[in-house]
Specification:
Distance between the termini: 69 Å
Number of helices: 2
Radius of gyration: 22 Å
Strand content: 35-45%
CATH class: Mainly Beta
CATH architecture: 6 Propeller
CATH superfamily: TolB, C-terminal domain
Structural class: mainly beta
Largest sheet: 5 strands, antiparallel
Number of domains: 1
Shape: globular
């Protein structure tokens, strides 16, 4: 009885200490001491610098002051949070992502069947699991910013695009009866159009912000404007970039689906694309393509000419293992969903003259 009373007293004291303590959390991309790397390597002029990576709750660091820090650790020990049975919340198989203007990074995870939200301004991480009131995500892959601060998530197994509000609350669906297996999704904010890569439909379906099917373009084939299992999408400079995955190429089309440019081919040489997946475009027009078969991020210019390969198979710095999506943000950062390494790798584009 005395031990029970003592434990109760300790718990109360710790809670009081922890409650009085000023605490704050920060989101960190780098371990201490930080790693440094640039591409291409010296003596060439570097164009990309390693920023860090997102892996899960390890990125969130909570700071306490004074006695409260020790009290919080004691409290965690007493209630079992420091037990070896505690499993950290980490990325498992990240697939795609998007970053909003405030710096929040949204990442889909097909193994965890959820969307991770890394909120740099708030120093927090959340996991969104629900696609509807009683429906969980099954295979979330593509993700995009929608209208009115919504987040759009393409779930390949559910067969539709989920609309989430800024807090992750499901607000409806898009394409529930029109899509077969949606993977990529992107929005043209200027026109209020949502493009969805329907992988098993071998086409691109276009919806309004309200969810109405506006048009469909493309069909199965190898000619320009035809597709074979398209996956990831990007929209930039009034052009839609399509990872035409099983045709081993990237197609660039107009907002209405007119073929404008094709680059990429099957092969074993650097710059070839046996299995292109993620595609993204930065503010300078550089095109980033994830080549998942050889585990590379390939950088092309606007003409489709290879500028730089980054990667190779492995789990070390500058290596990837079955990477999937890629996206850019307003800070000239490039994010790569390094799927089988369970992380998102972040690079900084070093603009010439900046």
């Amino acid at each position: 009885m005395r031990r029970a009373n003592l434990a109760t007293g300790l718990l109360v004291a710790v809670v009081v200490l922890a409650g009085c303590a000023p605490t704050h959390s920060t989101l960190r991309y780098q371990p201490d001491p930080p790693f440094t790397a640039v591409w291409p390597a010296p003596p060439e002029t570097p164009r990309y610098r390693y920023v860090g990576e997102l892996t899960g709750e390890q990125n969130i660091h909570v700071a306490n002051q004074g006695l409260a820090s020790s009290g919080t650790r004691l409290f965690k020990w007493l209630v079992g949070l420091t037990s070896p049975k505690h499993l950290p919340v980490v990325l498992q198989r990240p697939q795609g992502g998007v970053t909003d203007a405030a710096g929040r990074v949204y990442v889909t995870d097909v193994s965890r069947q959820a969307v991770y939200v890394f909120d740099e301004p708030a120093g927090t991480m959340q996991v969104w699991e629900m696609a509807a009131d009683n429906v969980r995500f099954v295979s979330p892959i593509g993700i995009s910013l929608g209208a009115n601060h919504e987040i759009l998530v393409a779930d390949a197994e559910l067969g539709y695009v989920v609309r989430l509000d800024k807090d992750g609350i499901p607000r409806g669906t898009i394409g529930q009866t029109q899509l077969v297996r949606p993977t990529g999704v992107v929005r043209d904010a200027a026109q209020g159009r949502i493009y969805v890569a329907d992988t098993h439909g071998h086409d691109i379906k276009v919806f309004s912000d309200s969810g109405e099917l506006v048009k469909t373009f493309g069909r199965r084939g190898e000619a320009a404007g035809e597709y074979n299992s398209p996956t990831y999408l990007s929209f930039a400079n009034n052009r839609l970039y399509v990872a035409d995955t099983l045709n081993a190429r990237v197609q660039v089309v107009s907002p209405d689906g007119e073929a404008l440019q094709v680059f990429g081919r099957r092969g074993i040489f650097m710059g070839d694309m046996p299995r292109p997946k993620g595609v993204a475009v930065d503010k300078d027009g550089n095109v980033y393509v994830v080549e998942s078969y050889f585990d590379y991020l390939l950088v092309f210019n606007t003409e489709g000419e290879l500028l730089l390969p980054i990667g190779g198979t492995g789990g070390g710095l500058g290596q990837f293992y079955l990477p999937a999506g890629v996206w850019t943000d307003e800070r000239d950062r490039i994010y790569i969903a390094d799927s089988f390494n369970g992380r998102v790798v972040i690079l900084q584009f070093l603009r010439e003259g900046a």
